[in-house]
Amino acid sequence: MILSMTGYGKASYDEDGVKADVEVQSVNGRFFDLKSKMPRYLNEFEGELREITHRFIERGRVNLSITIDLVSACLETLNIDYSLAERYVQFSDEIANRCGIENNVDARSILRLPDVIQSVEAEESSDDTAALWEVAKKAIIPALEAHKAMRAKEGAVIGSDIGARLESVRNHMVAIERRSPVVLEENTHRLRKRIEQLIENDRIDESRFTLEVAIYAERTDITEECVRYYSHCDVFAQELSGKKASGKKLSFLLQEMNREANTTASKASDAEISQLVVQIKEEQEKMREQVENIE
């Protein structure tokens, strides 16, 4: 399975008047980098949040926000700043009168406004914060599951595209391998013709000529490069279709494939093979761009 590093997920959970809303966003990153935003009284659970998140996301830059709605929570440790609430109502009336609109502010809306609910004492109560954290976790995990499902969906699209390009570069290498003996034959013919022109009526030393051709053939032989390239392609395909594809491993394999392609072009010294190598490298560059988004 392929997981993209780019994804989004959200979930909510409501229990005993406490509502938790969680959103998860992620983008590409070389390592696991979590930035969390949550109420201060949950800061003590940051380590556990990191551990839970890392179980779902191995690498990438992750933003995770937790919002706790305590509007109808019956926690004795919560205080209401009534004077601040009254000022909010006053401001709301003034705005409605000045703009000629209806003032539809209700108590629930007021309680959502900043600092109306004072949770200082709640921060000091380990029992209350633990209870709030348990509610939050029941939203965190579904949000991460939704996030993973989206990444898997995008990963399937990426895998399909990379798979098609992998088949393309393999076919190009097959064409190079077929072209290689033709190049050797053509170069041998040109070499013989050139020697004949240089020595005119003198007879060519066939044994020496055969030796020189053999040396040339060995120097320009790309069999090893082709074999290694096919091997890298096979491992790449296995990783791509495995239980959990690794973007780092795929990136390494692409580097090795690129190395073999470059060596093939330099050894072959043939315009047609060079053009095929250019096409291989173009496809590999597009594959690399896709692989960079795989977890």
Helix and strand arrangement:
Blueprint: E1 7-15, E2 18-27, E3 32-37, H1 46-56, E4 60-69, E5 79-80, H2 82-99, H3 107-112, E6 117-118, H4 120-124, H5 126-199, H6 206-220, H7 223-240, H8 247-268, H9 271-291
Parallel strand pairs: 3-4
Antiparallel strand pairs: 1-2, 2-4, 5-6
Extended strand count: 6
| Residue windows where pLDDT falls under 50 for at least 5 positions | none
Instruction: Report the total helices.
Output: 9
The fraction of residues assigned to DSSP E strands is: 5-15%
The shape is rod-shaped
Radius of gyration: 33 Å
Q: Estimate the mean pLDDT confidence.
A: 85
Record the strand order, biggest sheet: 1-2-4-3
> How would you sum up the major sheet?
4 strands, mixed
Classify the secondary structure makeup into a structural class: alpha+beta
Q: State the domain count.
A: 3
Helix content: 55-70%
Give the termini separation: 11 Å
The ordered string of helix (H) and strand (E) elements is EEEHEEHHEHHHHHH
Task: Give an overview of the whole structure.
This protein has 295 residues and is an alpha+beta fold. It folds into three domains: 7-73 and 125-151, Ribosomal Protein S5, domain 2 (2-Layer Sandwich); 79-112; 154-291, no CATH class. The chain is 64% helix and 13% strand. The protein is built from nine helices and six strands; from the N terminus they run E-E-E-H-E-E-H-H-E-H-H-H-H-H-H. The protein has helices at 46-56, 82-99, 107-112, 120-124, 126-199, 206-220, 223-240, 247-268, 271-291; strands spanning 7-15, 18-27, 32-37, 60-69, 79-80, 117-118. A four-stranded mixed beta sheet has the order 1-2-4-3, with helices on one face. It has a two-stranded antiparallel ribbon with strand order 5-6. Strand 1 (7-15) and strand 2 (18-27) form a beta hairpin. Helix 1 runs parallel beside helix 5. It is rod-shaped. The mean pLDDT is 85.
